[in-house]
Amino acid sequence: MSDAKLLTPKTSIHTQSPRTKRRNAAETRFKVFGMIAISIGLLMLVALMGTILSKGIGAFQQSFITMEVELLEAKLDKKGNRNLSDIKKVTTFGYTPLIKNAFAKAVKDQGIETDLKTKDMAKMLSKSAAAQLRNVVIDNPQKIGQTIKFRFLANSRIDGYLKGRVSRESIANDKNVSVAQLDFADQLLKAGVLKKTFNIDFIIGADASDQRPEAAGIGVAMMGSLFMMLVVLGLSLPIGVAASIYLEEFAPKNWITDVIEVNISNLAAVPSIVFGILGLAVFINYMHLPQSAPLVGGLVLTLMTLPTIIISTRASLKSVPPSIRDAALGVGASKMQSVFHHVLPLAAPGILTGTIIGLGQALGETAPLLLIGMIGFIASNMPTTIGEGLLSPNSAMPAQIYEWAKRADPAFYERAWGGIIILLVFLVSMNTLAVILRRRFERRW
Amino acid sequence: MPLTWLVLILLTLVGLGFILGRRRALRSANGDARLLHSRPHFYGANVALSTLVPSLGVLVIWLLLQPVLIDRSVSHMIPPEMVPADTTLGLVMSDVRRVAEGLDVAVARGVMSERDSNTLRTELTDLRARLGEVGVALGQDVRPEVLSAAQSYRRLSHAGTMGMTLVVLAVAIAGFGFSLIQSRKEFRARNVVERGILSLLILAASLAILTTVGIVLSMLFETINFFGLHDWRDFFFGNTWAPNFRGESELSILPLLWGTIYISLIALFVAVPVGLFAAIYLSEYAGPKTRSFAKPLLEILAGIPTIVYGLFALLTVGPMLAGLFGQGGALGVSWMAGATSVLTAGLVMGIMLIPFVSSLSDDIINAVPQSMRDGSLGLGATQSETIRQVVLPAALPGIVGAVLLATSRAVGETMIVVMGAGAIAKFSANPFDSMTTITTRIVSQLTGDGDFSSPETLVAFALGLSLFVLTLGLNVLALYIVRTYREQYE
């Protein structure tokens, strides 16, 4: 019976031994670590998105001061003959008195009591206010002598005050704005002269000089990005598909093919800045293509996107079952016909998805664009023709964001965040399109 | 624009060729397609391809070579003693090009006749003023040798463009005629066309090699130039980075390499534990619901452009860290001088790398055979013991590969360090110091106004080549490790 005694468990199965407890605690700990890791990742995503939205949404609104401006004939057209070349001779300085008068009139009409001089009131407007007024007059000379309602951009400090970025405390050392001006802004706000509204010019407008953050827009850079993406799409899709077809369907198994394959997988991991150096050395220094041109940017991004497209295209060509090829060959198609008539159409959704994802990467890439000179200037000319769009200097969305971030003015930071919102909207819609395409057309064999 | 016209003419010829080739082949078979060797459209495609491909090839090669050849022959016209002491031949040549473009614009606007533009003399005309009228602003008065160089530049360009048009059209018409004559019913059009298409496919595939060769050569030449101007021992073994555009710069890669490695280490310190634990949780513990929700969300982090992370570092994380550790900060220590620091860039880069590490490790952990887990669990190990003692050791080589790939990404990352790391090159172990990296210096040396003959600019190419070699080495090593590991379980 001594054997039975040995078999008797020393501990009860109803209570845990210290060792089991330790092991179970370790198990729980391990699991919690995993959960913490996931939550850190998700938290970072939330923090990032929260920051972008909270800081960038302001860029889509802008403060405007709407006033009635009397276009005095005595100031703008002394001869009274509405001769355009004479009107053009009046510089923006000639328009400043009109703006001062408009402020004086607004103060009187609204019954605002203030000690602020009209000179300081006019400084509350954007530095481009007089130029905008002048452009309107030059476009419509018949309006001289009339009183028109005009919407002026408020300058970035006043705009920041309305958005809560600028406060009476924060402007203590700021010589661009005074407390009296903020008081006056409050009065204008109450009277409905100063208003914060949706700002379409941020989305479609051009960049502005670093003195006028309130007038800067991302529209021209968006066109630059668009032209770059056209180049990338037009070159990388055909070349990428052709290269993949060769490697996947025709290439003999030999060392040359191996070299090409290793090459492509390595190119996919080359830092993007290296492609920028290549672009600078080959396209600009050697071929003398114009600097800062979207064409050059597009070429560099094409080289960068090609490996991505080739890898995804090869994957979708590989997923077409060999029976399709065999059937085509069996009914007398040539190898080329079987590929182009059967395999390629069946792989098309996958190829398209990969291309869109590659384009998305190219759209957000910044580093190579810095080297080929798509920063450091004010992208203000909207291209009118395709040739101009490809060859004349332009910025691109990420480069424009970088440019704004460099200008070290909180008003430009707001625009940089706003630009990121637009960039992300593009990326999200491209990726959604890719997912939809994959869901709808992908075939499982 | 003559180039547009040339391309349009080519395309018309191609379309015409397709129709005529097809028709001629059909006619040779008396309209009965069954008598043809190939289907009729192959004959058309043959004519179209033999018209387009050779002529387009000539066009592209000509466009690539012409500027180089003209530049070379014109720069021979400018004697070295005519180049002012404070500039270089390259700058004089860009003056020449600018004057030539200005003359083109003036002729196009009708301000100047073609003959005038060729017979202009600087002694007789104030060219700067006349070009200013048509909106071409010149920085200084045009010197006579620059003007005559510009005039011959224009003459050569015109002759070149004219020659190009003629040659390309001749090639196109020759191809057109030859292949049209070939288009008879015995002609094996399909075989010819397919062979042609195959060679185009090969051409596309070899572009990948061409790119690599381009990368290496473009950087190699400039790097050799750089080492001609600057001692290579200082570059590799010096200890100071102090570019000075008046000469006597000390350009050593080591302080930059230290900054790069330090930032990458911090990034990996953030990304590897978080990414690895996330991958373990997702592949071993999470149910399908959590997995399908958390995995795509984490991968969004990988799809966000780096400029966004850069801005996040510059405007959010940097000021936040400065608020904690900086002077008058919340912790009462003043370790940090400004918002840019190694820690700022490293933390943000770590966030960027989390999904990279997690999705690679996820794949690798999933590749460990289920039988190994079952065996361990069957012996009574808890799940975490199974993971720590069976799954992870089995997946270790793959995870090392993933970490190496992440390192290569961190080393080559540009925007985050440009915006978050600062610009001071030094050896320091303090993570709150502002430091600089290889990629940051490449950007700053190449975005200035430096000309391409000073070591301060050329050093960027040497840095780029070092970066390329470094990341390539890491990638090859990582891929080798991952591949050997995968084969272990296949």
Automatic annotation (TrEMBL), chain A:
One GO cellular component term noted in the UniProt record for this chain: plasma membrane
Protein name, per record: Phosphate transport system permease protein PstA
Keywords, sorted A to Z: Cell membrane, Membrane, Transmembrane, Transmembrane helix, Transport
Transmembrane segments: 32-53, 226-247, 267-286, 293-313, 339-360, 416-437
PROSITE patterns assigned: ABC_TM1
Entry's family note: Belongs to the binding-protein-dependent transport system permease family. CysTW subfamily.
Region of interest (Disordered), ranges: 1-24
InterPro entries in alphabetical order: DUF3333, MetI-like, MetI-like_sf, Phosphate_PstA
SUPFAM superfamilies: MetI-like
Domain ABC transmembrane type-1: 222-434
Top-level taxonomic group: Bacteria
Organism: Shimia gijangensis
GO biological process: phosphate ion transmembrane transport
One function term, GO molecular function aspect: phosphate transmembrane transporter activity
Polar residues composition-biased segments: 9-18
NCBIfam families: 3a0107s02c (TIGR00974)
Bilayer topology annotation: Multi-pass membrane protein
Location in the cell: Cell inner membrane; Cell membrane
One Pfam family here: BPD_transp_1
CDD domains: TM_PBP2
Keyword Lyase annotated: no
Entry keyword annotation includes Cell membrane: yes
From TrEMBL, chain B:
Organism superkingdom: Bacteria
Gene Ontology biological-process entries: phosphate ion transport
Transmembrane domains' residue ranges: 6-21, 42-65, 162-181, 197-221, 256-280, 300-321, 333-357, 390-411, 458-482
Cell compartment(s), UniProt: Cell inner membrane; Cell membrane
Protein keywords: Cell inner membrane, Cell membrane, Membrane, Phosphate transport, Transmembrane, Transmembrane helix, Transport
Pfam family, one: BPD_transp_1
UniProt-listed InterPro entries: MetI-like (IPR000515), MetI-like_sf (IPR035906), Phosphate_PstC (IPR011864), PstC_N (IPR022182)
CC terms in the record's Gene Ontology section: plasma membrane
Record PANTHER family: PHOSPHATE TRANSPORT SYSTEM PERMEASE (PTHR42727:SF1), PHOSPHATE TRANSPORT SYSTEM PERMEASE PROTEIN (PTHR42727)
UniProt family annotation: Belongs to the binding-protein-dependent transport system permease family. CysTW subfamily.
The name this protein goes by in its record: Phosphate transport system permease protein
